[in-house]
Amino acid sequence: MRMWDFRIHADTRRGRHGHPQLAGKAACLVVALLPLRPERLLPRSFLTNSTIWRTYRMCPVKEFDTIDVNVAQLKQRIPLLEYLQRRNWKACRAGNQMEFVGLCPLQRETHPSFYVNSHKNLFYCHGCGRGGDLIRFVQLSLHLSFPQTLAHLRQQLTPASNSDLLERTAASYDSDLLERTAAFYQLALHRHPEAVQYLAQRGLHDPAVIEKLAIGYAPGGVLRRHLCAQGYPLEALLQTGLLDAGGRDAFCRRVIFPCRQHGNIVNLYGRSIGAAFPHRLLPYSKGGLFAWDSVARHSAIILVEGLFDLAVLWQAGFHNTTCAFGTHLTPAQWVQLSHCPGRLVYIAFDQDDNQAGPQAARDLARRLRGAGSAARLVCLPQGFDPNSYFVQGAAAPDFAACLEQAQPL
């Protein structure tokens, strides 16, 4: 590895990045994070040194360029935050919109001290004092050498073979594709001010709730390139409905909510922030009641029509709220809602001027009563839904009063 010998030699002479106290593999790891051309590391006067020049001749610039390009491509195609999230790293946003903090995956700790900057693609842990980029993290977490790390990351990008895809079930393959898509949209949210502004207009501003619901943003025109770079064939994107027949992104200028069932994403809901039709789902079943895995344990639940109704209620502390994506429950949603006799269901549908919401609430209350569950009709001011109620200035005590005043059928 004469190439790295040169870089160690050069780095020990460089004032700003020099680490003369390091030697051997440790120094290799440090310098591996600085894949620069020799002339960028050294003043031209140093290149007259016969030892350095001999090493430089054994490692022409073209070889350095190849390594630089490979490393840059790996870090571009595998964002550090996405890599961590795929390995179940739990984090919340820090003060900076591009920064996330969570427990350090490199050590045991109880207080979050591991920070990731998604814009710079870097991490730093205030607990153990280690930091760097994606390659450095993989080296530390998997105890790999620099070449082994590059090989490992290239393997992450290798598309599954046809035989592998045939062995998977269609559901698991689609779920993996939707997970990648949702993670991509989630990262895009705070890179687009129009999306953040739309959430604020809808009364949603708590970063913890936005993170909990994994809300993202689809700007349009970028998903195809991203997923194809991840190894997914164009046919898969068309079949899942992520692209339309013309090959364009199905979600464009839409706030995205992932819909999960038993921990897996089964669909994506997109709410337009522009003039397009407001609601869009992929051509799949919308699954069960939204966030049912976390809501089902409550003995009293609140049922609303829309996801922004749910979001503002979660933000106000009503975490026992679920959503049916409208007023008409699917068979699966009905089973979830009625399978526990004795449960109290608060129905907080939109107070439409045409009475469609109140009438649907009364019909559902009758069905629940017949199934042995108690139902209460939540009456908001005329023309309001839970979302607009909070946007117009209502607070948690106001909605709690509406629950207290809710009447049985």
Set out the fold topology.
Layout lengths: L1 H12 L10 H9 L5 H4 L8 H9 L2 H17 L2 H7 L4 E3 L5 E4 L11 E4 L4 E4 L5 E2 L1 H9 L3 H12 L4 H6 L2 H19 L4 H9 L5 H6 L3 E3 L4 H7 L4 H7 L13 E8 L2 E9 L6 E3 L10 H4 L4 E5 L2 H9 L5 E3 L7 H8 L5 E4 L8 H15 L3 E4 L8 H6 L4 H9 L5
Parallel strand pairs: 10-11, 10-12, 12-13
Antiparallel strand pairs: 1-2, 2-3, 3-4, 4-5, 6-7, 7-8, 8-9
Helix pairs in contact: 1-2, 1-4, 7-8
Features:
single chain, 409 residues, alpha+beta, DNA Primase, Chain A, DNA primase DNAg catalytic core, N-terminal domain, 4 domains, five-stranded antiparallel β-sheet, four-stranded antiparallel β-sheet, 20 helices, 13 strands, 45% helix, disordered N terminus
What does this entry look like structurally?
By secondary structure, the protein is of the alpha+beta class. The protein has four domains: 2-59, no CATH class; 80-157, DNA Primase, Chain A (Alpha-Beta Complex), CATH 3.90.580; 169-281, Alpha-Beta Complex (DNA primase DNAg catalytic core, N-terminal domain); 292-404, Dna Topoisomerase Vi A Subunit, Chain: A, domain 2 (3-Layer(aba) Sandwich), CATH 3.40.1360. The chain contains 20 helices and 13 strands. Helix 1 (2-13) packs across helix 2, helix 1 (2-13) packs antiparallel against helix 4 and helix 7 crosses helix 8 (146-157). The longest helix is centred in the middle third of the chain and has 19 residues, at 170-188. The model is unreliable at 1-67 (pLDDT under 50).
